[in-house]
TrEMBL record:
<feature type="domain" description="Glycoside hydrolase family 2 immunoglobulin-like beta-sandwich">
    <location>
        <begin position="179"/>
        <end position="269"/>
    </location>
</feature>
<dbReference type="InterPro" id="IPR006104">
    <property type="entry name" value="Glyco_hydro_2_N"/>
</dbReference>
<protein>
    <recommendedName>
        <fullName>Beta-glucuronidase</fullName>
        <ecNumber>3.2.1.31</ecNumber>
    </recommendedName>
</protein>
<dbReference type="GO" id="GO:0005975">
    <property type="term" value="P:carbohydrate metabolic process"/>
</dbReference>
<dbReference type="InterPro" id="IPR023232">
    <property type="entry name" value="Glyco_hydro_2_AS"/>
</dbReference>
<dbReference type="InterPro" id="IPR036156">
    <property type="entry name" value="Beta-gal/glucu_dom_sf"/>
</dbReference>
<dbReference type="InterPro" id="IPR008979">
    <property type="entry name" value="Galactose-bd-like_sf"/>
</dbReference>
<dbReference type="InterPro" id="IPR013783">
    <property type="entry name" value="Ig-like_fold"/>
</dbReference>
<dbReference type="InterPro" id="IPR006101">
    <property type="entry name" value="Glyco_hydro_2"/>
</dbReference>
<keyword id="KW-0378">Hydrolase</keyword>
<feature type="domain" description="Glycosyl hydrolases family 2 sugar binding">
    <location>
        <begin position="50"/>
        <end position="176"/>
    </location>
</feature>
<dbReference type="Pfam" id="PF02836">
    <property type="entry name" value="Glyco_hydro_2_C"/>
</dbReference>
<dbReference type="GO" id="GO:0004566">
    <property type="term" value="F:beta-glucuronidase activity"/>
</dbReference>
<dbReference type="GO" id="GO:0030246">
    <property type="term" value="F:carbohydrate binding"/>
</dbReference>
<dbReference type="InterPro" id="IPR006102">
    <property type="entry name" value="Ig-like_GH2"/>
</dbReference>
<keyword id="KW-0326">Glycosidase</keyword>
<feature type="domain" description="Glycoside hydrolase family 2 catalytic">
    <location>
        <begin position="271"/>
        <end position="585"/>
    </location>
</feature>
Amino acid sequence: MLKPQISATRELLPLDGLWRFVAGDLDHAPGSRPLPSTLEAPVPASYNDLFVAPSLREHVGWVWYQRTVRVPRGWANERVFVRVDAATHAGRVYVGEQLVAEHVGGYTPFEADVTDLVRSGDEFRLTIGVDNTLTNETIPPGTVEVTPTGARRQRYLHDFFNYAGLARSVAIYSTPADRIEDLTVTTEIDGTTGVVHVESVVDGVGTVRLHLEDADGDVVASADGTSADLRVPDARLWGPGSPNLYTLRAVLERDGLLADEYVLPVGIRTVRVDGLRLLVNEEPVYLTGFGKHEDTPVRGKGHDDAYLVHDFALMGWTGANSFRTSHYPYAEEVLEYADRHGYLVIDETAAVGLNLNIGGGIFGSSGTATFSPDTINDRTQAAHAQALRELVRRDKNHPSVILWSVANEPASNEAGAREYFEPLIALTRELDPSRPVTFVNLGMATPETDRVADLVDVICLNRYFGWYEDTADLASAEMHLEDELRRWQDRHNRPLIVTEYGADAVAGLHAVHTQPWTEEYQRDVLDLYHRVHDRVEAVVGEQVWNFADFQTSSAIFRVDGNKKGVFTRDRRPKAAAHLLRARWTTRQH
């Protein structure tokens, strides 16, 4: 699915701003009349923290957004689409009373062709419903319980707040009747020549002409046809710290005239696994960086360009070269920024919480089978497969994406895990053979008990020795961490990335001795991990959990959210951030 853009033949009208807003069931057909509310909600933003009513923050079910849209007068002979970049976790779009789109999945876009329902120069009422309900058959999963007071309460196993609403942009856009519907770009390197393979999908009639331009706007390669190879002599490769981008100009001609144009940035690079090494452009890379969240005060998961720029500036200050989109696909603007600035991305689908015993280290195991007809089942797997299709479809052309992550911390040690994940991993490879595949392993699944790790190209590990285990005993934590990493290396002989490690720290809490929750303790935990990483050959990356403190559901062991960030939620550095800067800015990547 190509992102809407303004080109020689396309126009885009963003609909960001204040929308009429109401929560709960409507007493009339959606879109049939103005919403019965005086509330207004900004788009993009999660709605949960905007208002002061607790009932809205913890609301379970549908909410409704509405505004009037005027179609530009110049779109008379064009096709018109409504595009929703994300509706968490399910969405319905109405033009007037007409339902034009439905979608399940909270972090990928969907759209509707509304050409026959709107007229250029006229207004129409646009209504969007968003449902935040999670069940055992959604990605991520959850359950809804009814409290003794009769209230509905959403329960879930992922450790971040279930922010909901229209957290990303909404727009209408136009295309010609004959248009380029999709582009898929893969790249190879042949000596010093870059090879850009382009597959085009055309909706309509016409001839595709492809032109690749360098940073100066000069055409360096051209070809005709829906499938073509563009060869670039002395290509400038895309890589970490050297984000060289070319511009692919795809033109559709009909009867010798311009019918459509789509412009796509292209980075020429390769990524593959060789033994214990992760190679980008045939050079070994060592990932340094973070697990992150789309999470800011007031906005929740609402995309914000100011935070986008500031967060990347802070990552650059630490010397980071990578991040994981934990635990869902981020706004596409984030990946575009990573493309332009040379960051490596582990792109993860929203499959988090696929482990009904995940509280084992804190509460003791629930003893419930994760994979069964009544829990995580075939319908969950089908939803998971669709989430992977939409992830790859949206992000396949971003050079910054070097790994697909199919899940975070599933019960990969339980019966049924292999049967659940093997077809999903195979599907991911089928969708995109050009990138390695991974999943992120939880400590409960050891090298000896994990049933899935041999299926993936890179093994990602989340480990909390020194925090949930060996608390305040850093000598034992260092010994246990090194022992386990070496067992993974010996058993699977493939690259390891420690995708989560760290400890909670309350900003401003200090001690001269070993005391959890202090800034010094968080710093010392990270330091011990780094010593171990440097001693284990298979470790090819380290991503601290977390970049910044973030909001979680209410829990007795969380004080105003998760405090594992090396920056506070409002992006002030803790002592650990300075430790990372000292290590990463001097490390050779």
